[in-house]
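From the pipeline queue, job 12 of 40. The input is one protein chain; the requested action is below.

Action: predict structure.
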Amino acid sequence: MPFLPHGRDDVPQMLKKIGVRDFEALLGNIPEALKRGVRLQLPEPLSELEIQQEMQALLAENRACHQTVSFLGGGAYEHFIPKVVDFITSRPEFATAYTPYQAEVSQGTLQVMYEFQSMICTLTGMDVSNASMYDAATAMTEAVLMARNITRKNSILISAAVHPLYRQTLETYAHAQNIRLQTLPLKGLITDTAALREMLTEDTAAVLVQSPNFFGCIEDTSAFAGLAHEGKALFIQGVDPLSLLLLKTPGEAGADIVFGEGQALGNHLNFGGPYLGLFAARREYIRKMPGRIAGLSEDSDGKRAFVLTLQTREQHIRREKATSNICSNQALCALAATVYLALMGGKGLRQVAELCLQKAHYLFDKIIALPRYAPLSPNPFFKEFVVRTPVPAAEIVEKAPGSGFFAGIDLGRFDPKRGDQLLIAVTEKRSRKEMDDFVAFLSRFK
């Protein structure tokens, strides 16, 4: 916001109008334990000119980030985004602070939703898709809630190789919903199928596996789907959408519900968000799906017309019948994904996927050839991999920006036992020179 109109005299009048004594009274619902001891260390006020100069200085520091070569991943990836994506998403009819979801939604917006859903179904091999969700973490959580509603069972078997931050989101919901989460152990860096056979019970609602998983490894999803169905449970699969151009789709593997992160489809990193969650399922479960689903129909003149076919949420139907309290989708992010998918086409997307695969394996081979660096798993991977480092991975991550790199993710952040493990991601943007320079940087650590 370029200008804040509320001066010192305006605030007391506003508080008086709404009937409160001071600003602190507006924070009465926040527990005292959370407010106690909180003190903001703010500098003295600045003039408008001084603020502009301060912000320009901060922005100048950010420019160095754009020159830093990134090997970060873990759910957020630096892919190439054609300029036409930004051009279309910035048009005023799309870029609005208001999220259209009532009857006044335009035909253009509805068509974008419909095309997005169609493309996600094509990518995943599933029957139906909704118009997107907030992000992969909430999409995964909604998939679990949906499985519980379908099966009327309360136990979920979730792989230890699922993204740990997604898992935290699920645990928050599961605690309130009395859903029991059981962790499927790993065999190396992939999920142990033998453990699944032993842990399946009559109360298992679903088996949840991510492939490629958090460590970048590709799981045997067909095996998990088969075992889940033998135990009368659903199979939920998490995906990287670009990997589906090279791997067996969830539909082919036998998945019942699919979730994923759509950031890689034409969306910038955006300092961690907003992103968009992908969500698809088999046709028989369509009325249990959360969010919104746009459909194709005809108007009174027989012309093609797009409509919001299903809105099974509490704003539209009785709360006890709602599938979710999520009240919107990420319409603008989904638009970016739709433009990107349409522009790239099947051939272009496959080329991006192949470049990610080939470049990731090139860098992997170079790194493990270094003294005291070693692979952790023989399992195939797509665009991310884990290597064991000769020094704590946190040390490499900390020193890398000074040499022009974001080195990857220190897995010790999530598990102290993995303090010498580094998760590295490679996309189509990385050049041979950038990767060779990164290997030279890594070679300094003995």
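Job complete. The radius of gyration is 24 Å.
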